[in-house]
Each structure stands twice: as structure tokens, then as C-alpha cells.
């Protein structure tokens, strides 16, 4: 059911006050991934019903295969890039996240220097959640433009 899936992914993944929603989604159990996310009482302020309906209509038309294939291929990606073991990222890199993103509870940023040896900038947007580019588009765009200006030769 694309409507239920989209409501739970967009609204249930970061239910206010529920920092464990994302972890619960990833924890193995008898329920499916979407079943483990709560049904939100209302849409987040950053998305309208018309926008959500657009996503629902598109996923109803096309299915979720394209989006899910990235996750299905995750192990294969490690296999095909095994020749890069020990390599580091030397180009300028930027990480932007919201302080209310539940995924940060299991995302390590303290070891970034082990894999990124080039210029690195980390920006945390106070109070923003997982869907950062939709929640705070002006802030995200300003950060991106500033970063691009700094790395343009």
C-alpha cells in the first residue's frame, strides 16, 4: 500500500519524541519494516497533502523496485568495491544532517578522518530531522552554495 508506506516513511520515521523509530524499523522481528513504524497523527509541517499525494501516485504507478534495489544490492556494492579497501576520500567533502535525525543514533561521524583525508566540513542543522532538504531547503541550499564556492577553482 503506497499511501500507508509513504505516510509512515515520511511521518513515522521521525515521530516527535520517538528517537527509536528508525532503530525499530531496522530491528529484525516478525513484523515488516513499514509495520514497525508508527502511523503519524498528522503530516509534518514541511510537506503538504498534495506533495504527499504526488509521491503516492508515482509509487502506485511505478512501484518501489527502483528505490529498493539500492538496498537489495548493498552487499554486492561492497564486493565490487573491495579493491578500494583502505582507500580514502581526498576531494573536498561535506556532511549535512539535522540534530533531530533519528538515523544519527547509529551513524558514526567521530571516525570520519579514517576515510576522508581531504578537506571535510560537517554541518548540523539544529532541530532538523531526516528529510533535511525538504524540512530546511533554504538552509541546505545556503550551506551547499557556500561549500561549492569554497571548492571552486
UniProtKB/TrEMBL annotation:
Keywords: Hydrolase. The keyword Hydrolase applies. GO terms for molecular function: hydrolase activity. Gene3D superfamilies: alpha/beta hydrolase. Transmembrane segments: none annotated. InterPro entries: AB_hydrolase_fold (IPR029058), Epox_hydrolase-like (IPR000639). This is Alpha/beta hydrolase.
Amino acid at each position: 500500500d503506497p499511501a500507508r508506506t509513504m505516510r509512515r516513511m515520511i511521518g513515522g520515521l521521525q515521530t516527535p519524541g520517538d528517537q527509536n523509530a528508525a532503530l525499530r524499523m531496522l530491528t529484525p522481528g516478525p513484523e515488516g519494516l513499514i509495520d514497525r513504524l508508527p502511523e503519524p497523527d498528522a503530516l509534518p509541517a514541511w510537506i503538504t497533502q498534495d506533495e504527499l499525494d504526488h509521491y503516492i501516485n508515482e509509487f502506485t504507478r511505478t512501484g518501489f523496485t527502483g528505490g529498493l534495489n539500492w538496498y537489495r544490492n548493498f552487499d554486492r556494492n561492497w564486493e565490487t568495491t573491495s579493491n578500494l579497501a583502505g582507500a580514502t576520500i581526498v576531494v573536498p567533502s561535506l556532511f549535512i544532517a539535522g540534530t533531530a535525525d533519528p538515523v544519527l543514533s547509529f551513524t558514526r561521524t567521530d571516525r570520519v578522518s579514517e576515510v576522508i583525508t581531504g578537506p571535510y566540513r560537517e554541518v548540523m542543522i539544529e532541530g532538523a530531522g531526516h528529510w533535511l532538504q525538504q524540512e530546511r531547503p533554504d538552509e541546505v541550499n545556503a550551506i551547499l552554495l557556500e561549500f561549492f564556492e569554497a571548492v571552486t577553482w
